[in-house]
Amino acid sequence: MENQDIAPVDILAFSPHPDDVELGCGGSLILAVDSGLRVAVADLTAGEMSSRGTPTRRAGEAQAAARQLGLSARLSLDLPDTKIGADPAHRQAVIQCIQETRPRLVLAPYWEDRHPDHRAASVLIREACFYAGVAKMGQGPPHRPEQLVYYMIHSPFDPSFIIDVTPVWERRMAAVLVYQSQFQPVEKGPETALSRPDFLRALEARAIWFGAMVGVTYGEPFFSIGPLSLKKFPVVGAPINPSSLLPAYRAMG
Q1: Are strands 11-15 and 105-109 parallel, antiparallel or unpaired?
Q2: What pLDDT does residue 7 have?
Q3: CB atoms within 10 A of CB 233
């Protein structure tokens, strides 16, 4: 793993391939960085089996996207693309990453997804979050994240919460568009579902849909297996936004 001496971070987001995190939760990561949190992304693979681009180019795009997101670090675990979780050593690599970065919150792709790597990564990360806290597992001091939360890549789910990313939407999309090898139809290479213009329109439509659920322009959905702990009702003590007094789209149904 690169950058092994990284200081502890507040949030560690795992990305099966470079660009998955940007597609699923890039706006929320930008908001976290803007609030003063240390955020890192760990790419499980280099995306070397992608129909478009090369591993070298994807690596450059990933680092450029890291600058757009404001990350403290972007790590690469060098697991084999299309074979995530096929070897027990893969879980050990994720455990080591968690023990070295010591995040309070881990973000993983939701386990139901059309891409087999995304599904496998979700299971792998959940297991590693548990085993990273076992003293005899891994090579570093044990560390179990306080919370594991799932973000959406392809398949929809009923979210536990939605983060309003409206203020950083343009910055979020700038991080996505850094991956020209994947999302630009004029690039050389076979046409894929991602390279078609409709894909980016669908990405925006999804954010509009989930934003409408909570009465904002753009939203990113997340899922938590267990209940989330709050110290007070979420609206108590918060500034009143007149627009929040209007019913959200779901409430109007």
Answers
A1: parallel
A2: 81
A3: 8
Q: Quick one: DSSP state of residue 214?
A: T
Tokens of 188: 């050389």
The fold adopted by the segment(s) 11-252 is Rossmann fold (3.40.50)
The residues spanned by each domain of the chain are: 11-252
Q: Mean pLDDT for each 10-residue chunk of the chain (253 residues)?
A: 68 95 97 97 87 78 95 96 93 96 97 91 96 90 95 94 97 93 64 68 95 95 90 68 57 45
188 by Cβ neighbours in 10 Å (0-12 / 13-18 / 19+) ranks as: exposed
102/142 Cα distance (integer angstroms): 9
**Predicted pLDDT of residue 247:** 58
Which bin fits 78, alpha (ψ -120 to 50), beta or left (φ > 0)?
A: left
* Beta pairing class for 39-43 and 11-15: parallel
CA Rg, the chain, in Å? 18
Neighbour count for residue 252 (Cβ, 10 Å): 9
70, 41 contact by CB (below 8 A)? no
| Helix (H) and strand (E) counts in the chain | 8, 7
Contact 170, 30 (CB under 8 A): no
pLDDT at 242: 55
The string of DSSP letters for 109-166 reads E-S--SSHHHHHHHHHHHHHHHHTTSTTSSSS-----SEEEEE-SSS----SEEEE-G
In terms of C-beta density within 10 A (0-12 exposed, 13-18 middle, 19 or more buried), how is residue 158 classed? exposed
- Angle of CA points 60, 203, 17, to nearest 5°: 35
> What burial letters (b/e) apply to 5-29, b meaning 16+ CB within 10 Å?
ebeebbbbbbbbbbbbbbbbbbbbb
